[in-house]
Amino acid sequence: MADRPEEIQGDAHWRTAGDRIQTLLEATSAGGSAARERAEQLVREVVELYGAGLSRIMAILDDPALVDRLAADDLVASLLLVHGLHPHDVRRRVADALDRVRPYLGSHGGDVHLLEVSGDTVRLRFAGSCTSCPSSAVTLELAVEDAIRAAAPEITSIEVVSAEADAAGVIPAESLLAKIHANGAGAAHWCQVPEFAELAAGEVGGFVVGGVPVLACRVGDQLYAYRDHCPACDGSLAGAVLHRGTATKDPVLRCPRCRSHFDVVHAGLGLDDAERNLQPIPLLVRDGVLSLAVPTEPMDTPA
What is the pTM assigned to this prediction? Predict the structure, then answer.
């Protein structure tokens, strides 16, 4: 069920609270060092007060199911983490974070396995078509890495173990992402798009998010987002609709201009030409707010 508008606005408001507090603290510097010190002390007192209150709440609760519900709420979980009160260890939090992004990975025909959490390092292995999908590295950075950092801020290193021969060894995430950044495909920022949730099942909508034309569609309960660009005719997909595929039970998107067909459920695969695929854009719920990973650099037009 989609979040109610007031819930989305509330989550978005609190997500940026830290930035607003920092801005206010910086503004107090205009009153001199003494004013700044008093403001910082005030913030510390408030944080410690609410930390003490949260600690007592967690001590009073004796229902594991209720504790799990609190830990599953993004806002509450972030506060518990700040005060060192989160009931789950780092491995459990990382595993839960990966579970939340698995539907997105599944839309690319892939999966991710948690191999090990050692100190501040997480080791992962991708499976399925994620290992060869051209957007797999972007998925790693913008979906998997983002989810892990939010759930376990103490993690400072993510390593990807090759799914091929063991001789291939470990691929540091930073090395993989560096290649993507060099092609201008990995840099992105998250934009909140709660309006996407208003799409009805089977509906396709065009949006401009962060200056990037985006096509979003809903298949059942799942939302998918792609760059608004047909790789076959080099035109916009505005006016495209979903059709029932003949070779697959999943709906396909048909370009209204050149009539090319694409599998929106499986990473925008070109059904008429496997070399011409739509460009998927990660679309995830972050802290209760539906968000899109908008590239900060222009996306290259596929050949």
Answer: 0.60
In tens, the pLDDT along 51-108 reads: 898 899 988 988 888 888 888 887 788 888 888 888 899 999 999 989 888 877 776 6
pLDDT < 70: residue spans in the chain: 1-16, 107-109, 128-142, 162-188, 245-249, 287-288, 296-303
Cα 129 versus chain centre, distance: 19
Residue 39 CB partners (closer than 8 Å, separation 6+)? 24, 25, 28
Bridge partners of residue 170, in order along the sequence? 161
Beta strand pairing call for 170-172 and 157-161: antiparallel
Q: Which among 282, 299, 239, 276 is positioned nearest to 105, based on CA atoms?
A: 282
190 burial via Cβ count (<10 Å: 0-12, 13-18, 19+): middle
CATH superfamily of 190-295: Rieske [2Fe-2S] iron-sulphur domain (2.102.10.10)
Can you tell me the distance from the alpha carbon of 211 to that of 231, in angstroms, rounded to the nearest whole number? 19
Residue-wise burial string across 153-169, b where 16 or more C-beta atoms lie within 10 A, e elsewhere: eebeebbbbeeeeeeee
CATH fold of the domain at 90-184: GMP Synthetase; Chain A, domain 3 (3.30.300)
Question: CATH 2.102.10.10: which residues of the chain?
Answer: 190-295
Residue 285: its H or E element: strand 283-286
Q: Kindly report the CA angle at 218 between 212 and 221, in degrees rounded to 5?
A: 135
Residue in the block written with tokens 């495909």: 185
Q: 181 Cβ partners below 8 Å, 6+ apart?
A: 187
Q: Give span(s): CATH 3.30.300.130, the chain.
A: 90-184
* Model confidence pLDDT, tens digit, residues 31-52: 888 888 888 888 888 888 988 9
